[in-house]
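Design job #97: recover the sequence.
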C-alpha cells in the first residue's frame, strides 16, 4: 500500500520528469545533440517517449529549456527567450517546445523582470534603457 502511495506522488519516472513551470533567466549553453539526448536517457523531454539512438536527429531542440523533444511535443513554434533579452537585449524569436511556448505566452504581458536586479549590466549595453533610466 505504501508503494502505491509513493508512486502516486511521483511526477514521471526515475529517468524522466516532465518539464515544470519555471522562468529561466539564463541562456542555454551550446550543446551537442548526442550528449544532451544521452543525458535525457534517450527520452523525449516532454512526454518521456523512448527514442532509439538512430532517430535522435529527428528530435527538435528547445532553446528555452535546452532539451530535445519529439515532434508531438515540439511543433516548431518560435518565441522570444527571456534570458536572451536580459543578457543581450535580443528579441529574436527562437524555436521552443510546445510546453515552453505555452509557458512563455502565459507570462508575456506580466511584469516579471526587475532590470535593476536581474539585468544589471544591460543599461550600459542598451542606449535606450540608459536614457529611460
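Job complete. Output follows.
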Amino acid at each position: 500500500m505504501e508503494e502505491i502511495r509513493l508512486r502516486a506522488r511521483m511526477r514521471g519516472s526515475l529517468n524522466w520528469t516532465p518539464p515544470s513551470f519555471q522562468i529561466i533567466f539564463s541562456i542555454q549553453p551550446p550543446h551537442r545533440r548526442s550528449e544532451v539526448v544521452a543525458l535525457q536517457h534517450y527520452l523525449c523531454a516532454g512526454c518521456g517517449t523512448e527514442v532509439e539512438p538512430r532517430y535522435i536527429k529527428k528530435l527538435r531542440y528547445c532553446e528555452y529549456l535546452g532539451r530535445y523533444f519529439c515532434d508531438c511535443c515540439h511543433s516548431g513554434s518560435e518565441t522570444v527567450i527571456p534570458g536572451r533579452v536580459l543578457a543581450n537585449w535580443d528579441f529574436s524569436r527562437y524555436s521552443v517546445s510546445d510546453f515552453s511556448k505555452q509557458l512563455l505566452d502565459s507570462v508575456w504581458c506580466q511584469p516579471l523582470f526587475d532590470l535593476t536586479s536581474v539585468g544589471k549590466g544591460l543599461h550600459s549595453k542598451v542606449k535606450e534603457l540608459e536614457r529611460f533610466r
